[in-house]
Please model this.
Amino acid sequence: MQDGETGTDWREDVYTVLKSHGVKHVAYVPDAGHSTAIRLAEADNEMHSVVLTTEEEGIGYLAGAWLGGERGALLMQSSGAGNCMNTLGLVSNARFPFLTLVTMRGDWAEFNGWQNAMGQATEKALNMMGVLTWRADEAKDVVPLVHGAASMAFNGDAACAVLLGQRLIGEKKWVK
Model:
């Protein structure tokens, strides 16, 4: 097997694990690192994919989905995690399951210095807001970490994040 338990690319594995956990809503701000999962969610008639203007909107959307009896996940980039800090108070006070997958920027071979500050602070900031975090830097870790985080979120009403490291995603290059 190539990249984990399913034998597919880790990018497809993200979608497959979400689907296996009954996720019906995928909220996201467009991101190249999540593009495969987004494309697959958009093509799935049983899944609602919602494009956000800013990441914190996804937290309220997922709260509403949960109140309606359905599961969801927020796909975002580490820079977007900074936008969510205040809104994560809703997760801790309302105690609903929260699952987010965060593609990392600013933590390895980053060409854009503006990404570095939040890239270095993402995990600590999420932890300070009560979100449990796990980090995948190798493809073989994606399936077990996303599965474990989804299980803890949906079965234990926890706030969970899987950080998809920049080494996993690949080095971004400045295109001139």
In short: The radius of gyration is 15 Å.
